[in-house]
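Researcher: Quick test of sequence recovery. Tokens follow.
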């Protein structure tokens, strides 16, 4: 008996179906739906399953995400600031998600979109960055690292990935910040905010961001922007995590609880003034 005979019947059928689609059989080493359009195939199956459960409420597959991440370049480095809430529509699944992933000593990536997609492909980027360094005997640039991720995303374009990530770092040319989307698009900028709460964060950042911010001013601004986003966006919240990247590498700052930022103490809300008490 060979290894093929030991495979489950369902897996063999999936592999045989995938092999009938040339581009999918060539581009991947794991089974995919036997269709040239995996996203449409997935939505069709979800629609059929929803009709079987409840015909009136049947609808195509909708992916619901929620988060707030931001990054900007300041005088001497790059700041990344994120919340830690994980949601699926109105359901909060976790308040302690790590949304900043360490790619190397001088590179960080953020998570926005599908948590599994972001974590898997940014870990894979860490592998590519390590191999690049071993081959070239020098650290990779931020631009090259973001291009590696962009190439990977373009490779799987149209296959249902959900990612909106920032790649930040410090190299021989200074601090850099790139945004990479799941369709392979990539752009460099001085200021980005990604996620359902990004519009609220931009309201603070657009008003107060300056390129000559000091390290302390940058950390305070990033935390305040995330706090305001979590206050208005129900799908953002939990812990505010900030990272600062300089020529010496990245450094994680002290986490802050959104509840404490709002009330001053988790068990002791701010006191009501005498005037407010009289009105009540």
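Model:
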């Amino acid at each position: 008996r060979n290894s093929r005979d030991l495979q489950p019947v369902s897996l063999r059928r999936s592999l045989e179906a995938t092999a009938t689609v040339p581009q999918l059989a060539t581009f991947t080493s794991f089974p995919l739906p036997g269709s040239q359009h995996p996203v449409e195939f997935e939505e069709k199956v979800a629609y059929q399953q929803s009709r079987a459960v409840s015909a009136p409420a049947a609808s195509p597959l909708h992916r619901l995400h929620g988060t707030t991440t931001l990054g900007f370049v300041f005088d001497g480095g790059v700041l990344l600031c994120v919340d830690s809430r994980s949601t699926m529509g109105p359901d909060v699944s976790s308040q302690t998600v790590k949304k900043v992933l360490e790619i190397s000593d001088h590179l960080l990536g953020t998570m926005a979109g599908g948590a599994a997609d972001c974590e898997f492909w940014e870990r894979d980027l860490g592998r590519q960055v390590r191999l690049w360094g071993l081959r070239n005997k020098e650290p990779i640039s931020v631009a090259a690292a973001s291009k590696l991720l962009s190439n990977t995303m373009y490779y799987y374009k149209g296959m249902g990935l959900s990612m909106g990530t920032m790649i930040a770092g410090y190299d021989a040319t200074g601090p850099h910040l790139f945004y990479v989307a799941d369709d392979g698009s990539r752009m460099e900028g001085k200021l980005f905010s990604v996620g359902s709460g990004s519009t609220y964060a931009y309201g603070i950042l657009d008003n107060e961001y300056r390129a000559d911010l000091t390290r302390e001013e940058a950390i305070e601004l990033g935390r305040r922007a995330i706090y305001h986003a979590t206050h208005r966006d129900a799908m953002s919240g939990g812990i505010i995590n900030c990272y600062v990247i300089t020529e010496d590498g990245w450094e994680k700052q002290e986490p802050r609880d959104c509840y404490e930022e709002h009330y001053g103490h988790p068990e002791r809300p701010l006191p009501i003034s005498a005037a407010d008490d009289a009105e009540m």
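The mean pLDDT is 81.
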